[in-house]
Amino acid sequence: MTVIEVDGMVKRYGDTTALAGIDLRVEKGEILGILGPNGAGKTTAVECIGGLRAPDEGEVHVLGLDPRRDRSRLRPVVGMQLQEAMLPDDLEVGEALSLYRSFYREGADVDRLIADVGLEKKRRKRFKELSGGQAQRLSLALALVGRPRIALLDELTSGLDPRGRRDIWQVVERLREDGTTVVLVSHLMEEVERLCDRVVLVDGGRVVADDTPTGLVDRALAPGSRAKGATLEDAYLALTGQAPEPPDLEDLEEAR
Ligand SMILES: Nc1ncnc2c1ncn2[C@@H]1O[C@H](COP(=O)(O)OP(=O)(O)OP(=O)(O)O)[C@@H](O)[C@H]1O
């Protein structure tokens, strides 16, 4: 079952075309990674899917509904982790989660969620006292507190230490076991290789590749490259035109 359908999505900010016609499908229970250089349009795409922004052109459907027009119907089933959570400065971690939990008829166990994201010792800390990584963990917990059927996670683990990253990967793996559909934006190839069933590579506001992580390596590089140790990062750099230029043979000859 297709839960997210995007057709020809265009978004402009003044003179800047952030999305130049994006098509995207996400199936139920799938973990889709969105990769791409800074400014490629990843956050804009996720914000349009989550109903925070309206595309200028094209169609977006989530569970067959319009994310903006049907926002109140989608709110209980779509959880969004944003790059920057906005909470009152003095709200404590435990209070914020209990408050958000109260918005949902059925939701996560707050104590369990706090433990899962590694915030047990910060339960009584106010939002303004959290470090960047702690605020990031809280924003993920807030996205998941209503046990959403679809989780939109923007830069899931950026700013987290290696331990924190692994904690959060386990949280996402549990979402997979529960059948939650996940869209995650990431710059970490290790994260995408570990978690994602499929990767959409966005560059310049367009989808330039859509494949499994291993399929992407095969597609981007010469046959047999994977056996020789080529990685998703190599494929990413090749597909986005960021791979280092191979040395010019004539220059090498001259240097000898
Ligand atoms: N609110 C805004 N007003 C004007 N321009 C914007 C706005 N938000 C994004 N843009 C521009 O739209 C383009 C896409 O930005 P977006 O944040 O979607 O990219 P991204 O792929 O998520 O980047 P990053 O990896 O740096 O987070 C960029 O050129 C950016 O400067």
UniProtKB/TrEMBL annotation:
GO terms for cellular component: plasma membrane. This is ABC-2 type transport system ATP-binding protein. InterPro entries: AAA+_ATPase, ABC_transporter-like_ATP-bd, ABC_transporter-like_CS, ABC_transporter_ATP-binding, P-loop_NTPase. It holds the Pfam family ABC_tran. Residues 4-229 form the ABC transporter domain. It comes from the Bacteria. PROSITE patterns: ABC_TRANSPORTER_1 (PS00211), ABC_TRANSPORTER_2 (PS50893). GO terms for biological process: response to antibiotic. It is a peripheral membrane protein. Keywords: Antibiotic resistance, ATP-binding, Nucleotide-binding, Transport. It is found in: Cell membrane. One of its GO terms (molecular function) is ATP hydrolysis activity. CDD domains: ABC_DR_subfamily_A.
